[in-house]
Every structure is written in structure tokens, then in C-alpha cells.
Amino acid sequence: MYYGKGDATTTSSGDNTFLFFDDFSGAMDWGKWASNEHTKYVTTGGLLRCARPTANTGFIRTANTFSEQVRIRYAKKTSSSSTMLYSYYSDGPDTYAQLNAALTDFWRPDSATRYTKLGYTKDDDTSYSQVYSDNVVNTWRKVFKTQYDNKVYTRITDLAGSTVEEITEKTDAKHGYDRYLKFLQWVSGYAYIDNVRIGKYVDPEPTHTSWGLAEAFQDLP
Question: Which residues form the DUF2341 domain (predicted)?
């Protein structure tokens, strides 16, 4: 299937549709996730609650790695400004020293330098700029990211779908490290994550040009 699950049998199951899916509807599924501080990441009310880890070192990441050709979607809410860090790469030790006080980090896998905040602005591998994103405390935001062919695209919307921050495609996202989806909560307070989905992505996406007769609407006698 387009989303990467050739054995999918029903659209009612996220696990049967996406490469990775978790809506946190039950107990924490440690078959899907890994962490060095399990007690800081729990499900509550159908959400993943991320607490501040000890000594700013705790993280949670997907148990499996994925390809570079993906679409990542999730919803997030923070209880204080700039508390949730995001990465799609493993880049050395998962410690505060290698992170930054950012809403979302997109790490460069080839060096200690990060694409900070939501994006980066140079393609020459030498100069990068911070792009500060909207982060309204206790307000849900939807995050959409695509990673493909050394390009990154990020968009944050409100729950109604209106864009509040958008970073256009940039090149020079070098690869070579394991690709986990990873979160880290380090400022006092909590962050919440919901409806994490990772699916296959191609550019351009497939288009539908016409309907066959079997799909056409007809009035039956």
C-alpha cells in the first residue's frame, strides 16, 4: 500500500495502515517505544505524557528505525514554553548537552550541529539559522513533517488545520545514522503527544485522475 504496509487489511487499524502508529489508547506499548527513563513517559487519558527526566537525559524514541522517505504526523501540547524536543535521527548520546531549548529540533546526522527550531536556511553545510515557531502553552498543535530526497518540510497547524508556522523545503539533510522518531521533555512541566503516524512518502505524491465505472455514482432501479 501507499503508506508502506503491503499487508494492510482494514482502514480501521492504524497498525495495519502505517509504518508506525500509536494513539496511546491503552497502556504504554514498550514494543513500539524505547526509553532510558521509562517512568517519565506514561499514557493518561489516551495521551502520551512526557515528564521532565532526571538530569535532562531521558528520552523516548520509536523502537524501530525507518527510511528517509517518510511523512511524520503527530499532535502535541506543552504546559510551558519550549519544552518538547523532536528529532528524526539518532546522533550520539541522548543528553541535554547535545540538545537545545527548542520546540522541535531536526538534527543533522553528520555532525554535532543541529537544524534548530523548525528548520534551517542554508544549503552549503556552513550556516544555519534558528526559526522560532508558535508555541502557545496548553494549546494543541498538529505537526506535519516530510523527509525525502535530502529535503525537509515542516508545517504546524491548529486543530482546525489553519497553518501557524511553515518551513519550506531545504536541502542538505545528510543521512547515514539510524532514523528514529524521538522526543525529549526537559523543562519543568509536562508535554503531551497524541496520534503519532509515520507513513511512506514520495514526491510527488500519487494522484488520482479518474474514476472507473464501478466507482461512479449511479441510481439503481
Answer: 1-35
Distance CA 22, CA 199 (A): 12
Contact 60, 35 (CB under 8 A): yes
CB 66 within 8 A of CB 177: no
The domains of the chain are located at: 20-206
In the CATH hierarchy, which top-level class contains the domain 20-206? mainly beta
Where the chain has pLDDT below 50, the residues are 1-2, 82-83, 89-134, 172-177
pLDDT, tens only, 116-127: 333 333 333 333
- Between the alpha carbon of residue 77 and those of residues 48, 144, 150, the distances in Å are 10, 14, 28
> For residues 112 and 44, what is the distance between their CA atoms, to the nearest angstrom?
34
Q: Distance between CA 93 and CA 1 in Å, rounded?
A: 35
CA distance 12 to 88: 27
Residue 132, C-alpha cell as written in the block: 522560532
DSSP codes joined into one string, 21-68: EE---SS--TTTEEES-GGGEEEETTEEEEEPPGGG---EEESS---S
Residues 156-187 have pLDDT tens digits of 788 888 887 776 655 544 444 457 777 766 56
How far is 8 from 15, CA to CA, in rounded Å? 8
